[in-house]
Model the fold of this input.
Amino acid sequence: MPYRRSPHHRGIKRQRKVKILATLGPASRDKETIAKLLKAGADAFRVNMSHGDHDTHRETIANIRAVEKDLERPVAILCDLQGPKLRVGQFAEGKAFIRHGAHFTLDRDPTPGNDERVCLPHPELFGILQKGQRLLIDDGKLRLVVIRADTDAILCSAEVGGPISDRKGVNIPDALIPIPALTDKDRRDLAFAVEQKADWIGLSFVQRPEDVAEARRLSGGQGAIMAKIEKPAAVESLDEIIELSDGIMVARGDLGVELLPEEVPPIQKHIIEKTRALGKPVVVATQMLESMITSPSPTRAEVSDVANAVYDGADAVMLSAETAAGQWPVEAVTIMDRIAARVESDTTYRERIHLTHTPPDATSADALSEACAQIADTLTIEGIVVFTGSGGSARRVARERPAAPMLVLTPSQPTARRIALLWGAHAVVTKDIGSFEEMIAKGKRMALRHGFGAAGSRLVALAGVPFGVPGSTNLLHIVTLTGNELDTPK
Done:
């Protein structure tokens, strides 16, 4: 079963620690399907701002919140910005054919193109490209190499030719493109996401740390920023981008176009490792169960792909068109849930996820978080109860990938929702605590109510004194449930 209900509570308690992020679209945005997806294993939903209008997205978000309230489980919403899209212009006949080895020119002339030239309606690209750099068209199906570039035309040789048609996308992997990550549309979509209280903002076309800083400035601190790593330039500035972001997405679509195919798997592992080491959530996305758009079952290679991301210790794995527009959205989530659960039950799983070393910083919070994980490895612990306002303590504990699941108690609903993408964390919104005794009593009650143990079970509680002060994590306590905590007055 992908979830269980405590006899005391309606909320969903997952058996697995990795999270599932499912994209909503025409096939899945109604309340009934959203509820089915949550029950099947989804923990968070992606709203793709590349498609649909604000009215449609507003209705989708309202549906998520209605189901969230009904199922009593915090759900994260990620609004994914489209980012700038580079495209060629139009052709006189709507299409053309570029011969292998032939010369082909991209210029600023708006006249419809032919087999020898076409307009490239992005003036900022002229004058920055150099001989030998590549232009990849239509997701890399055509590959041009620059022979000569000036302020009006880019003369190329067709290393790989073929058919081309109007408005096909262009990728330029070898140059830092002087285009901001946020277009006018993205700015409007970002303002909409903030207005709708989106928990996460997916930032596309990130090339440099400044792109993340700009998105954060425009969001006014509302919504966590998830930088999508899909450009080679972002890989080169990875440490700085992770530092400025709240989370990272390995967006393998464009990354797979702009890099050689064999380069993507090691880079994926590198991104996961770096992001985990800094204690921030990392999501693996794109084509995870692609064949399930039309098929009720995935390929063996897709199953291995999802499993490898789980073995690497990713916080979440993502479904795109599989759930947004596919014929089998609930089945796709169900199978992803089953794959993740099977991997986590593998006897080698714990060893594999700890291949990534996550040394603690020299702070009491990090030292106690590491101690939580060591205690869970040494003793039979049913759960780690973390009291947090901002979610910082929960992220520190999750970074250690402890053996026991984490029950995160927070007075902040935005924090609880954001944590829905955090490895191993089950968040519950509850009133703040005022004393040590109240903390222990509430921790026990909530653990029992949410299925984290029974009579005789041991828990680890982590909090900060004085209570309600951010960044003051300094208290670790081991408690044992008697099983009758819910019988006592609250």
In short: The first strand starts at residue 3 and ends at 5. Residues 19 and 421 are 6 Å apart (CA to CA).
